[in-house]
Amino acid sequence: MTKDKKFLWCAVHQQKRPLAGCPRCGHFPCQGLSPEHLRFLSQSVSLQRAVQALSKRRIKTMFFLKDKQGALSTYQGKLEDLDAARAADIEEALEVSSYFVQELTWVPAGKEPKVKAPAAAKPRPCVVELASGEFALDELDPAELREDAAKIYPIDKRYLRRFVPVRVAIDEGEARKKPPAPRKKTAPTP
User: What pTM did the predictor assign?
Assistant: First the structure.
């Protein structure tokens, strides 16, 4: 490596700094580092991937349909409009209205990453869209690192298919209601 690559101009500190000292800086990784600098640092210093920011994006309400084999598929529209042939194979419908995108960065090993996570503090059931395009159902914290995830959809509502036997007596009409209790009259206040 040539001498000029060992030092670089730091726009944050307004002086020339050694490249190997960058991971110890509170602003690492900054805009002054090129991909070539990061490659050099990853070879010389132990770096790990971390979530730099977590952005939540709202979408039109959609459903993930889980069939009897456990495979997930997307569906946009109302569940009442689902055709009967497809509805017979569905075990569960998962409603989502937003998704998270993780913005990843490099941090030195042992350094705590700074995460700006909107309302994502504890593990919750999520549908994860993998980088390969497949979907997986998992319970996770969206702020934690998941490198294979392209999008993380937190589940708003879960609809289960339940078969409830209905028993109706022919001789009984509608359920009889009690008549409303009469209101008590109060004396007017002087």
Answer: 0.62
Task: Please give the C-alpha separations between residue 62 and each of 9, 84, 96, 125, in angstroms, as whole numbers.
Answer: 49, 19, 6, 16
Q: Which amino acid is at 27?
A: H
Count of beta carbons in the 10 Å neighbourhood of residue 55? 12
* End-to-end Cα spacing for the chain: 97
Q: Where are the beta strands (DSSP E) in the chain?
A: 7-10, 15-18, 47-67, 72-75, 90-108, 124-130, 135-140, 149-154, 157-160
In a 13 Å sphere around the CA of 28, the CA atoms on its Cβ side amount to 24
Q: Among candidates 126, 125, 118, which has minimal Cα distance to 143?
A: 118
Chain centre to alpha carbon of residue 157: 14
pLDDT of 3 over the 70 cut: no
**pLDDT mean across residues, the chain:** 78
Is residue 65 within 8 A of residue 93, CB to CB? The reply is yes
Q: What is the amino acid identity at position 121?
A: A
